[in-house]
Each structure stands twice: as structure tokens, then as C-alpha cells.
Amino acid sequence: MDLDVFVTAHRSEWDRLDHLLRRGRRLTGTEADELVALYQRTATHLSLIRSSTPDPMLIARLTQLVARARSTVTGTRRASWQDVARFLTAGFPAAVYRSRHWWIPTAVLSVLLAAGMGWWIGTHPEVQSAIAAPDDLRRMTHPGGEYETYYSSHPAASFAAQVWTNNAQAAAMCLVLGAFLCLPVIWILFVNVLNLAVGIGLMSSAGRLDTFLGLILPHGLLELTAVFVAAGTGLRLGWTVIDPGPRTRRAALAQQGRAAIGMAIGLALVLFVSGVIEGFVTPSGLPTWARIAIGIAAELAFLAYVYILGGRAARAGDTGDLDAAERSAELPAAA
After folding, report:
1. CA separation for the pair 150, 178 (Å, rounded)
2. Lowest CB count within 10 Å: 17, 57, 192, 203, which one?
3. Higher pLDDT, 97 or 78
4. 172 CB burial (10 A radius; 0-12, 13-18, 19+)
5. Considering the entire predicted model, what is its pTM?
6. Terminal CA-to-CA distance of the chain, rounded, Å?
């Protein structure tokens, strides 16, 4: 494309758009329609210039012009409680539902790996001795040991807040770092699986696996599910960098990244619930069956939330991304 010819051909349209924008609210109906048409054409011109013969000065001018026009055409929009309600009832569960083909395999493989590593640790004393000295192992696993007192070592409210903060940070790191070709997510996931396997192995070798599961399951079902969702979404984001599909890599990554940000907010709320259970239910005096039943109920409620509300929203076309009116326009990608 000859940039000089292109600029000469369309400069009058850009100047006219600038003139209409300066008039603000004093536009007639015909002029308002003209402004919308000029805004759409100028946005297309900007995309063409960016993709063919980029000129920094011209791009800066048109970017500013398009931004002003967009603000005038769409108006200033503020978030409302309706947006929050829509996010919680449609956007977030739809995003989790649509990424289920990533986080469900992640969950299954992680649980199998934790069980296998736990069995290996529990049946091999030499592995246990490499983890800690015999006295330290007894201090961790005997009745009233560190594995049991961990959940009641701090006041419930502060402990729940600390757990929630740590888990939310881990989930956010999985979502954000997924763009680095999945590798950081795999490492974070492996560390979590290893910690779980060590607990399973050491407590099973001491004949107290039932006690360990009674402490882990009440909060761990929902907590681990949230971590697996974050890890699966992070892996999906990383794979988008490798294979963006029919879209441009920039457009594909932008869409998945926006959805991942929403997922981080939603998962923080899920992890808050698991943190409350871990702080108040896990160390409580309730019978083991009652504590586990609460954990199972919370897990089933989350899965129902995802598959009922999220499935319905996903089938209606919700992706967890911003509405089309709130996203930058994209040129169609060549097939």
C-alpha cells in the first residue's frame, strides 16, 4: 500500500471526524450518523495502516482520533451491580465450563500422580528418611502432631484469611504465568501435588491415613478444584501462545487473557469459601463424617454452579470475555 496515496485519499474524512468530535453534543441527527460512519471507517483505516505500512506519527494520530470517537459513540460506561450479578451468574461459570476440557484432565492426572507418589513415599522408608529425620517424622505424624495441630495453631479467622491469601496468589500465578508456554503452571501444580503426596505417604506409613483424609477433604475438595481450574486455564492460555488457531496470536491471547482475569476474580471467591471451611470447619469438634459431608456439599454446589449456570450461559454464547461493545474491533483473520 502506498501510504502517501492512502493518506491523501482519506485525510478529509479524518479531518471531518475531528471536526464533528470537537462539536460534541451540538450535532444534528444527520451529523451523528455521519460521525458513527466516519468512526467505523477510521478504525478500519487504522487497522490497515498498522498491519501493512506502520507509521508511528500517523498511527498515534488515528489511535487518538478513534479513541475519542469511540468514547463519543459508546459513551462512558460505569460498572454496576448488574455487571457483578451477570459476572457471577453467567460470565465466570461459563468461563469455567468452557475450559473444563483443560482442568478436568489436569485434576485427574494430578490426583493420580499424588496418589502414586504418596504410595511410593509410604512404602519406601528410605524415601521417608530423605524427607526428614525419624524424630521429625514422628513429630509430624503422631496423634496431636504437626499435621493435626496445623489447622488449629492460629485463631480461625486469621488462619482462614492467611489460607485464602496464599491459595488466591497461587491460583492467580497459574492464570497469569500460563502465557509463558505453560512451564510455570506445571511447576506450581507439581509443587502442590508433591506436598499432598508427602502428607499422604507419611500419614499412611504411620497408619493414620484416615485422620489425614479427615482433615484434608472438608476444605481440600473445593480448594484443589479451584487450583486445578486455575492451572487448567493457565495451560490453555499457554497453549494459545503456541497454537492460536484461526485467529491472530494477539487476538487469541487477548481473549483468553481477559477471560483469565475474570477467572482470577471468581476463583478468589471460591477459595474464600474453602478458606472459611479450612479455618472454621476442619479444626472444629464436629465428627469426621460431618466435616467431610460439608466439604462434599461445597464441592457439589460448585460443580452444579458450573455445569448448570455455566453450561446454560456457554450454550447461549457467553465466553467469560468482555461484551463485544466493550472490546476493540478486530479485523477478520485470513483462513
Report:
1. 31
2. 57
3. 97
4. buried
5. 0.71
6. 22
